[in-house]
Specification:
Number of strands: 4
Largest sheet: 4 strands, mixed
Radius of gyration: 18 Å
Shape: flat
Order of helices and strands: HEEHHEHEHHHHH
Distance between the termini: 48 Å
Strand content: 5-15%
């Protein structure tokens, strides 16, 4: 089983490395169905780079190539369905590990997690960090119940908010986002204080 998981994860990473990611990368077999896309949002360090790129960019072929490469360095797993026989055997972790070995990949994101078991695992794992949407605080608001019940999750979220606020410069498209994050951070602090 371990050899098969190793083969499958390496095959996915190899094929992904040759893709352009435009329209998404799909991998389908009898054991797994996977969709990787350009993420809706980025980790703070990449979002900061993207901010700088957007504010300094000129519309030329070199600029478009740089932007495309920036998008590809953070693939987002949008959908993953693993056959029952391979679940809880390390395939998901193996895929992420192999994707991170691809030369141009700096981060791997998971978005639109619908499986409660996977969501619980990701939110309690020290290997995964929050990524916050720059378009709204809906994601932040929806995790209030988790923050109320888990001090470690609350702390993790505050660290992430502080990273965004620290690393992302004030540009037109992020100014409101930073304001929303600061307000959400304050609201979560109030919830935490109320709990005591």
């Amino acid at each position: 089983m371990e050899q098969f998981i190793d083969f499958l994860s390496k095959d996915i990473a190899r094929k992904f490395s040759k893709s352009k990611l435009e329209g998404g990368f799909r991998y389908k077999s009898e054991h797994i169905e996977l969709l990787i896309v350009i993420p809706d949002t980025y980790p703070p360090a990449l979002l900061s780079k993207l901010e700088k790129f957007v504010s300094n960019s000129s519309s030329n072929v070199k600029g478009e190539l740089e932007q495309h490469n920036l998008y590809r360095c953070c693939p987002a797993i949008e959908r993953i369905e693993i056959a029952n026989s391979l679940q809880n055997k390390g395939l998901f972790s193996a895929i992420v590990s192999e994707l991170l070995k691809v030369d141009f990949v700096q981060y791997v994101c998971i978005q639109r997690v619908g499986n409660p078991h996977l969501l619980n695992h990701l939110t309690h794992s020290k290997k995964w960090n929050w990524i916050l949407s720059r378009s709204s605080t809906i994601g932040i608001d929806s995790i209030y119940p988790y923050c109320k019940s888990s001090p470690e999750m609350y702390s993790s979220l505050l660290v992430t908010i502080n990273e965004y606020l620290e690393l992302c410069t004030t540009t037109n498209f992020l100014e409101q986002f930073k304001l929303d994050l600061a307000n959400s951070c304050e609201n979560i602090r109030k919830i935490s204080v109320e709990k005591k």
